[in-house]
C-alpha cells in the first residue's frame, strides 16, 4: 500500500507569521543559530509569540547538527518546560529541533510538544518532511532519522527571511531542491502524487534559482524558490530519494562539504548513471529513469532528438548551472585532500550503500558503481 498525506499546515503570505499568535499561555523555545540572533530575525519571531507565557532562545545550532547538540537542546527544552518549539533557520536548525523533540518524547520526559518550522533557506524542505539528518561526529556518519513524529505541525513560509542568504548558500541550497525533486521523480516509489509536486518544484527551481542567485533581493525569485523547496520536500517525503543523497550524506559527514553543495557536485554524474546513458548509447533500449529524466528536460524547455539526447541536455544544463554559480566540481575544489579521500573512500562507499535514501534509487547500486561515481569528483 502507498500512502500520501501532508500533516503539516503550510502558511504563506504577508501575514503568515500571525499564526504564531495561537500559542496563548504556552512556553515557547526558539531553536536557531547565532546568525539568526545577530540578524534580529529571532527577536522578530519572538515578537509574534507575545501571547506565550515565556519565550526562550536556544541559539547553539551548527551546520550538520551532531548528536551532542541534540542532548544539550533537550536539556534546554526540559528546563524551559516547552510546549511549543519554533525552529528558525536552515535544515540544520529544523532537523535539530525535530530530533530533540523526538528524543524528549521517546524518553518519556515530554508527551506533547508542537513544532513550528520557519525555514530561512530554500533547500531542505525539512519543514514538511518526516526526516531529520543528524551527524555522529566520532564515527563520521550522517544518519537520516525517519519517523512520522518528526513531521512539523506548522510550516511558515516567509521568503523575506531568505533574503540575507548570500549567493553561495543560495546556490548550494537551491541545488538541494533540484536534487530532491529529481531523485523523487525517478524514485522506485514515485507516484502521480509525488510526480505532480516534483514537476512543479523543478519548473520553478530551474527558472528562479539563477534569478535568486544573481539578485538575492529579488523577492519574487525568493518566494518561488521557497515554494519549490517546500514542494520538493513534500515529494521526497512521500517517495524518498536515491544514491545522490546516499553519497552526499557521507561527503558531508567526512569532509564537512555543505549538504546542497555535495548533492550539486554529484548530480550530473548520478543522473547520467541512473539513466544508464553509456550503456544505452546507440541502443534502442530506454530505462524508466531515462524516460522520466527526458520528460523533465522537455518540461524545462531543453531539446534533444531522442530520450538519451534529452537526458544529456539535462546533464549539460546542470553542469552549466554549476559553472554559472561557481560551484566546486571536484573534491579538490571543495577542500578535500587526496590523502583524506583515499583514507575515507571505503567507509564512504559502505555507508552510502547502507544509507536509508539509497534503497529507492532506480538502479540497484553496487560498491563498484559508487566508486565509479565518486571517481568523477576525485581529480587532483
Ligand atoms: N530533514 C530533511 O528533510 C533534510 C533534507 C535535506 C537536507 N537536510 C539536512 O539539512 C542540513 C542542511 O540545511 P541547509 O542547507 O538549509 O543549511 P544549514 O541549516 O546547515 O545552514 C547553512 C548556513 O547557512 C546559514 N543561513 C541559513 N539561513 C540563512 C539566511 N537566511 N541568511 C544568511 N545565512 C543563513 C546558517 O547560519 C549556516 O551557517 C544538512 O544537515 C542536511 O543533511 C535535511
Ligand atoms: Fe537534501
Write up what this structure looks like:
The chain is an alpha/beta fold and 380 residues long. It has two domains: 154 residues, Rossmann fold (3-Layer(aba) Sandwich), CATH 3.40.50.1970; 209 residues, Up-down Bundle (Dehydroquinate synthase-like, alpha domain). The chain contains 14 helices and eight strands. The strands form two sheets. The chain has a six-stranded parallel β-sheet, with helices on both faces. The protein has a two-stranded antiparallel sheet with strand order 6-7. The radius of gyration is 20 Å and the shape is globular. The site of nicotinamide-adenine-dinucleotide (NAD) has 29 residues, from helix 4, strand 6, helix 5 and helix 9.
Mean of pLDDT: 95
CATH class of the largest domain: Mainly Alpha
From the alpha carbons, calculate the radius of gyration and give it in angstroms: 20 Å
In CATH, the architecture of the largest domain is Up-down Bundle
Let me know the CATH homologous superfamily of the largest domain.
Answer: Dehydroquinate synthase-like - alpha domain
- Uncertain residue ranges: none
Structural class determined from secondary elements: alpha/beta
CATH topology of the largest domain: Dehydroquinate synthase-like, alpha domain
Amino acid at each position: 500500500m502507498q500512502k500520501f498525506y501532508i500533516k503539516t499546515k503550510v502558511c504563506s503570505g504577508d501575514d503568515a507569521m500571525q499564526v504564531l499568535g495561537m500559542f496563548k499561555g504556552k512556553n515557547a523555545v526558539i531553536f536557531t543559530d547565532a546568525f539568526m540572533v545577530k540578524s534580529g530575525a529571532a527577536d522578530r519571531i519572538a515578537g509574534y509569540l507575545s501571547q506565550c507565557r515565556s519565550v526562550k532562545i536556544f541559539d547553539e545550532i551548527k551546520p550538520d547538527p551532531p548528536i551532542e547538540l541534540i542532548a544539550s537542546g533537550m536539556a534546554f527544552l526540559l528546563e524551559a518546560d516547552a510546549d511549543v518549539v519554533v525552529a528558525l533557520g536552515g535544515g540544520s536548525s529544523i532537523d535539530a529541533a525535530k530530533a530533540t523533540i523526538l528524543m524528549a518524547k521517546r524518553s518519556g520526559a515530554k508527551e506533547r510538544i508542537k513544532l513550528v518550522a520557519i525555514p530561512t533557506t530554500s533547500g531542505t524542505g525539512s519543514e514538511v518532511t518526516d526526516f531529520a539528518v543528524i551527524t555522529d561526529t566520532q564515527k563520521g556518519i550522517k544518519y537520516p532519522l525517519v519517523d512520522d513524529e518528526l513531521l512539523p505541525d506548522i510550516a511558515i513560509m516567509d521568503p523575506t527571511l531568505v533574503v540575507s542568504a548570500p549567493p553561495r548558500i543560495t546556490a548550494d541550497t537551491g541545488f538541494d531542491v533540484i536534487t530532491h525533486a529529481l531523485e523523487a521523480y525517478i524514485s522506485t516509489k514515485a507516484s502521480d502524487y509525488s510526480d505532480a509536486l516534483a514537476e512543479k518544484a523543478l519548473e520553478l527551481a530551474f527558472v528562479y534559482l539563477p534569478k535568486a542567485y544573481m539578485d538575492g533581493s529579488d523577492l519574487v525569485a525568493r518566494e518561488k524558490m521557497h515554494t519549490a523547496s517546500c514542494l520538493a520536500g513534500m515529494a521526497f517525503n512521500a517517495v524518498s530519494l536515491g544514491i545522490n543523497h546516499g553519497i552526499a550524506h557521507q561527503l558531508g559527514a567526512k569532509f564537512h562539504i555543505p549538504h546542497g553543495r555535495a548533492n550539486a557536485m554529484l548530480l550530473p554524474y548520478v543522473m547520467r548513471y541512473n539513466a544508464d546513458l553509456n550503456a544505452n548509447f546507440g541502443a534502442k533500449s530506454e530505462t524508466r529513469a531515462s524516460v522520466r529524466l527526458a520528460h523533465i528536460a522537455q518540461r524545462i524547455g531543453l531539446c534533444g532528438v531522442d530520450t538519451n539526447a534529452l537526458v544529456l541536455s539535462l546533464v549539460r544544463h546542470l553542469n552549466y548551472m554549476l559553472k554559472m554559480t561557481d560551484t566546486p566540481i571536484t573534491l579538490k575544489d571543495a577542500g578535500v585532500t587526496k590523502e583524506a579521500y583515499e583514507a575515507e573512500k571505503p567507509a564512504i562507499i559502505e555507508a552510502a550503500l547502507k544509507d536509508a535514501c539509497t534503497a529507492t534509487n532506480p538502479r540497484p547500486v553496487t560498491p563498484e558503481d559508487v566508486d565509479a561515481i565518486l571517481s568523477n569528483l576525485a581529480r587532483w
